[in-house]
Amino acid sequence: MSDNEFAIESADAGASETIPMEAGQIKKGGYMMIKGKPCKVISISVSKTGKHGHAKCNFLAQDIFTGKKLEDMVPSSHGTTVPVVKRSDWEIIDIEEDGQLTLMDEGGEQKIDVKLPTFPEEMADEIREAWNEGENTVTVTVQAAVGQEEVIAYKKEA
């Protein structure tokens, strides 16, 4: 390979996993990053401007993957980061003993890098039961943010 040839390893558009946003623009039910974790905002309380001139936003949010509650306080005019959250529906093809899922979407694409959910605790058993060793068709909703993917819901087809 000569010097003027390039080896391109990945074809990635370079899209960021988070986007910057002013804290005052984040709404209840929206998403934000707290302590490096993607969270869904449960409530926001805004304090009045103090002697230093910034109204503060106090966020109470829930980690979208673990369900843990987190708090953050940011001046409303300052920037914070918002995760890019994507949801997609997949049909279960197989469930391994260790909880590894084999999934397929409507276009026939397969995904094998997702495990049964750990939160809420009973959901993994419910999905296994609904799937019944392949007797039933079960569709799961996979939520992805900041390089992490997790099953957040399931639906048993009639």
Automatic annotation (TrEMBL):
<dbReference type="GO" id="GO:0043022">
    <property type="term" value="F:ribosome binding"/>
</dbReference>
<dbReference type="InterPro" id="IPR001884">
    <property type="entry name" value="IF5A-like"/>
</dbReference>
<dbReference type="GO" id="GO:0045901">
    <property type="term" value="P:positive regulation of translational elongation"/>
</dbReference>
<dbReference type="InterPro" id="IPR014722">
    <property type="entry name" value="Rib_uL2_dom2"/>
</dbReference>
<dbReference type="GO" id="GO:0045905">
    <property type="term" value="P:positive regulation of translational termination"/>
</dbReference>
<dbReference type="InterPro" id="IPR019769">
    <property type="entry name" value="Trans_elong_IF5A_hypusine_site"/>
</dbReference>
<dbReference type="InterPro" id="IPR048670">
    <property type="entry name" value="IF5A-like_N"/>
</dbReference>
<dbReference type="InterPro" id="IPR008991">
    <property type="entry name" value="Translation_prot_SH3-like_sf"/>
</dbReference>
<keyword id="KW-0648">Protein biosynthesis</keyword>
<dbReference type="GO" id="GO:0003746">
    <property type="term" value="F:translation elongation factor activity"/>
</dbReference>
<dbReference type="Pfam" id="PF21485">
    <property type="entry name" value="IF5A-like_N"/>
</dbReference>
<keyword id="KW-0934">Plastid</keyword>
<dbReference type="Pfam" id="PF01287">
    <property type="entry name" value="eIF-5a"/>
</dbReference>
<dbReference type="InterPro" id="IPR012340">
    <property type="entry name" value="NA-bd_OB-fold"/>
</dbReference>
<comment type="function">
    <text>Translation factor that promotes translation elongation and termination, particularly upon ribosome stalling at specific amino acid sequence contexts. Binds between the exit (E) and peptidyl (P) site of the ribosome and promotes rescue of stalled ribosome: specifically required for efficient translation of polyproline-containing peptides as well as other motifs that stall the ribosome. Acts as ribosome quality control (RQC) cofactor by joining the RQC complex to facilitate peptidyl transfer during CAT tailing step.</text>
</comment>
<dbReference type="GO" id="GO:0003723">
    <property type="term" value="F:RNA binding"/>
</dbReference>
<keyword id="KW-0385">Hypusine</keyword>
<protein>
    <recommendedName>
        <fullName>Eukaryotic translation initiation factor 5A</fullName>
    </recommendedName>
</protein>
<feature type="domain" description="Translation initiation factor 5A C-terminal">
    <location>
        <begin position="84"/>
        <end position="155"/>
    </location>
</feature>
<dbReference type="InterPro" id="IPR020189">
    <property type="entry name" value="IF5A_C"/>
</dbReference>
<dbReference type="GO" id="GO:0009507">
    <property type="term" value="C:chloroplast"/>
</dbReference>
<comment type="similarity">
    <text>Belongs to the eIF-5A family.</text>
</comment>
<keyword id="KW-0150">Chloroplast</keyword>
